[in-house]
Amino acid sequence: MENNEVLIRVEGLSKKFCKDLKTSLWYGIKDLVSNIQGNKNDRLLRDKEFWAVKDINFELRRGECLGLIGHNGAGKSTLLKILNGLINPDAGKVTIKGRVGALIELGAGFNPILSGRENIYNNGAVLGFTKKEIDAKVEEIIDFAEIREFIDMPVQNYSSGMKVRLGFAVAAQMEPDVLIIDEVLAVGDVGFRAKCYERISELMKSCCIILVTHSMPQVSKICTKSILMHKGQIKAQGNNGDVIEAYYDDNFVEDKMTVIQSNNCKLDYFKTDKRQFNGEVRNFEIKLGIISEKDLENIELNLVIMSRELSPVCQGSSKFLKQDIRLKQGLNKFVFSIDNIYLNTGLYKFALTVDDCLSSKKYLWVQNLNPIKFINEFTGISPVMLSGKWDRND
Ligand SMILES: Nc1ncnc2c1ncn2[C@@H]1O[C@H](COP(=O)(O)OP(=O)(O)OP(=O)(O)O)[C@@H](O)[C@H]1O
């Protein structure tokens, strides 16, 4: 086994699909005839056809993990299916060295009427293992998947999570040189997903991996490089930071306030000091106005800083801060002064909730407010840096 050898080489790979089934069948017959006659016009699009994958080029070496990202319909699964030999490209070439383990579609590669155990043997045989070799692996696979109780049940009766468990366990335990994983892993529960990512990190030492995911933190954590696909083409390629930035620049989450609940209250305005903070900014202010239909007491104002993927990063609650907040009928203006927080380079958004402290009745819940950007010299892996001090304790 050569270290760093190129295991996947993709050259000018393209695949077109037709938007209409009848036309697609007609083109299929025409292509069959022209292929026999030796006239190939693979690089031309006909009426109602489009490129699902267009002119893709990349190489992947042993020890590398490629993150394949892009919005829905960008062509990621189509590319994986070509690499796994499930569909033929219209143009270009794929060269793969070694054994390929793949987890592309839920349940794909399994015979639904056979049991989990029988499917393990089937898949192993397809990958070129003898019965004796599979015998030696089957227990490990069942243990990894944690579905021993159900291993002799037909796969068609498995839940989605159980299919993913078995699929990943088979793909990962069969010593692949190339491991291809589509976002199906997301179906697994949190515990199993964590176990899969741990296994992926281990496997990376001896194989190369292509991982399709919509989770950018996952790309940063696991992948050694990435590709952003857009309408079948490569839009950005290379180190994760730049590619993820390009993914976000595609503006998938619209910068538009979302009102989730509004009872008796509405947001009049919401302002930050600036849209972009450069350097080490630890204090900033949020100014906001809430219009209330009536006087309200025992109010909790809660401001949440969200990541650009809208997951909460940290919050400031008036209840936690033991502040007595009341709203009067009409416009109520507030300022929230944020002290001593270090947000890492990135884009952040806000959510605001207004609740009754005693009954937890929600008067207002708005999110996707005012994106702000922080650009700092020091970039960490989590969004917030703790303040504190490191001292020796020995
Ligand atoms: N068999 C097919 N026939 C026609 N069009 C297809 C076929 N398979 C995929 N497509 C189309 O090709 C395009 C790319 O689809 P693909 O599934 O590769 O996208 P994706 O990037 O994996 O998306 P997602 O993130 O939603 O899984 C889409 O427009 C899809 O509708």
Description:
With 394 residues, the protein is an alpha+beta fold. It has helices at residues 21-37, 76-83, 116-126, 131-145, 160-173, 190-203, 216-222, 240-249, and strands at 6-18, 49-61, 65-69, 91-96, 100-103, 178-181, 208-212, 225-230, 233-238, 258-262, 265-272, 276-278, 284-292, 296-307, 312-317, 325-327, 330-338, 342-343, 346-356, 362-375, 384-385. It is built from 8 helices and 21 strands. A hairpin with a 5-residue loop joins strand 19 (346-356) and strand 20. The longest helix has 17 residues, at 21-37. The mean pLDDT is 87. The structure holds adenosine-5'-triphosphate.
The ordered string of helix (H) and strand (E) elements is EHEEHEEHHHEHEHEEHEEEEEEEEEEEE
Low-confidence blocks of residues: none
Ligand kinds? adenosine-5'-triphosphate
Kindly state the mean pLDDT as a whole number?
Answer: 87
* Largest β-sheet summary: 7 strands, mixed
User: Structural class, please?
Assistant: alpha+beta
Shape: globular
Proportion of beta-strand residues:
35-45%
Find the count of extended strands (DSSP E, 2+ residues): 21
Total of helices = 8
Summarize the amount of helix as a percent range: 10-25%
